[in-house]
Design brief:
- Helices cover 28% and strands 21% of the residues.
- It has 170 residues and is of the alpha+beta class.
- Helix 2 crosses helix 3 (86-95).
- It is globular and about 35 Å long.
Length: 170
């Protein structure tokens, strides 16, 4: 039988690999990268210069509705509404750059665009909720059931159960 010291030397690396694999894919974490990541000023996203035009347009659209109230079904009959729910928010932002033609539900956003995270834009969707990350900032309607309405955030959130999608090339 191996000594306790030898056993711990074998198990510790396995435990570290296991823990690292658990945490890396289950949370969206904000990471600032100079020249690639937008910042929040007075509730609005301010992008760095040099981002692709469509990324800037998505940010501008998100800024237009940031601070509006949460409204269940908001943004689904029409992109223009007095308030927005989660998928209405994502749809409005994408529509601002011509990246979606009509509002989608959170379930519908699960098959939007291409599979996996994008370079500048990632849509996270699951049945019942969706949010979008643009130039490193999260545009979301709440977390932990807050239903605050659209706002930009750097606060991390779990992504277990979400599908990551992105517009082609972005």
């Amino acid at each position: 039988m191996p000594s306790p010291r030898r056993l711990s030397g074998l198990l510790l690396p396995l435990l570290l690999v296991f823990l690292a694999s658990c945490s890396s894919s289950r949370r969206w974490e904000y990471e600032y990268h100079r020249g690639r990541t937008a910042v929040i000023v007075n509730g609005r996203a301010v992008p760095p210069a040099g981002l692709p035009r469509q990324v800037m347009e998505v940010i501008n659209a998100g800024n237009r509705i940031a601070g509006k109230p949460y409204k269940y079904g908001g943004g689904h009959r029409s992109f223009q509404d007095s308030g927005y729910d989660c998928s209405g928010t994502v749809s409005y932002a994408l529509h601002g750059a011509g990246l979606i033609k009509s509002p989608a539900t959170s379930g519908g956003l699960r098959s939007y665009g291409s599979r996996g995270p994008g370079k500048h834009i990632t849509v996270y969707a699951k049945s019942g909720h969706a949010f979008i990350v643009v130039a490193g900032l999260r545009l979301d309607t709440g977390y932990n059931g807050e239903n605050e309405g659209p706002k930009w955030s750097t606060r991390s959130r779990p992504i277990k159960g979400y599908v990551a999608r992105h517009p082609r090339g972005l």
